[in-house]
Amino acid sequence: MAIKENQLKLYNSLTRKKESFEPINSPHVGMYVCGPTVYGDAHLGHARPAVAFDLVFRYLKHLGYKVRYVRNITDVGHLENDADSGEDKIAKKARLEELEPMEIAQYYSDRYMDNMDALNVLRPSIQPRASGHIIEQMEMVKKILDNGFAYKSNGSVYFDVVKYNKEHHYGKLSGRNIEDTLENTRELDGQSEKHDNVDFAIWKNASPEHIMRWNSPWGSGFPGWHMECSAMSSKYLGETFDIHGGGMDLRFPHHESEIAQSVAANGKEPVKYWMHNNMVTINGQKMGKSLGNFIILDDFFSGNHELLQQAFEPMTIRFFMLQAHYRSNVDFSNDALIAAKKGFDKLMKAEETLDKLNPQDVTESAFDVNEWINNCYSALDDDFNSPVLISYLFDAVKFINSVNDAKVAINIESLDLLKKYFRTFVFDILGLRKDEAVSGDSELSAKLLGLMLKIRHEAKLNKDWATADNIRNKLTEMGIIIKDTKDGAVWEIV
Ligand code: ZN
Fold first, then answer.
1. For residue 131, how far is its CA from the centre of ligand 1 (angstroms)?
2. Which residue of 112, 115, 285, 286 is surrounded by the most CB atoms within 10 Å?
3. 9-277 has which CATH code?
4. What is the pLDDT, as a whole number, of residue 460?
5. How far apart are CA 35 and CA 128, in angstroms?
6. If you measure from the C-alpha of residue 276 to the centroid of ligand 1, how many angstroms do you get, rounded to a whole number?
7. How far is the CA of 28 from the centre of ligand 1 (A)?
8. Domain ranges within the chain, ordered by starting residue
């Protein structure tokens, strides 16, 4: 398919406007999306950007662009408080589990990929790891130092935000005014290595107990978290590329700092279009481990979590997310997911019905298929408006069912077009697929297993070890392994 020039408009968070999409080097498109920090299981907060940018990737490819999609894996340098202090998230998990940090990173990136496969998220063209690009990051730190936008302090290198902001606007992506920030953060405790609190580490000196460390011209240390995305995006996509995506929460400080680092190193704006997906809430609340509403994707797929009434198939989760525009908040609840499942099943049933329809010898159909196709494209061209596209798909579902009930007729040409485009939008672009072996049986099994775990949990609370062990042993005989974790028991079919 040829590219429909300048039809697609997308919202650029840098200019805060919808803009016509014009790739720098059409038909080639470079797209970079911040990927996971691999120290724990993937949850809904990981699924959201993956699905949102999968739609972008799929649609751009459908339009005929040659897309190089880079999504990184953060396996070093992301400290606990997202800034310059605290323990490295992966090193901490490794210490707690008594494993090598790279075992943690490998284990959770494998699990992440499994979850993304289940959600039918296409694999990116390149998945670079931060730990595999330490040299590139050091080179960029050196360039920033040479250009005078960073300073050395106690074996660390800090980005000089105040100096940068005199020539450029630090805060233009997040809409912050750095002068206001300076007023609020001027208090330095005298212990700080930084000239100013707004400065951030681009290279961090490693304390003696820090495991992940590399020798550098500034001493033994590791790169600052923001460095990896600047270094890897410019390595694989060039100093200026088309689209940079990620969650809204990454706009500041992560993406703001990426812009500053790239401009300071290369003297160029790194990104033409910045795109940010909105967040996920659960029953109206922010998701968080401390709030007890932290549900990992595997829990959704198994139904094995006390907040879930049942298991939800990956396609229900995907469809539910696509029912909201990527820039809108998504709120998960059992009712909303059950409704999404009904909608998804209706869509799949209509797709099956398409093959049963008999065309009639009519000149005009009650449903203008050409106009419908144009409407579907217009929805996608309007900043990837998937909810509007889905509403058009349900118009088609209604029509398909009416033809099937012999209430209205369709001719062969229109039917062929409808079949082709209905499937293109549903499968190729929205990336939905029919779940195999989905039946009432698997949902019922999940519920029954959940019940068994509850009974076993109660037995354990009552110190009735015989019953607890009996349940575990009987399930093991059936090929269902029970594992006790600090967050409760989980089951796995082997
Ligand atoms: Zn990033």
1. 14
2. 115
3. 3.40.50.620
4. 86
5. 10
6. 12
7. 22
8. 9-277, 282-436, 440-493
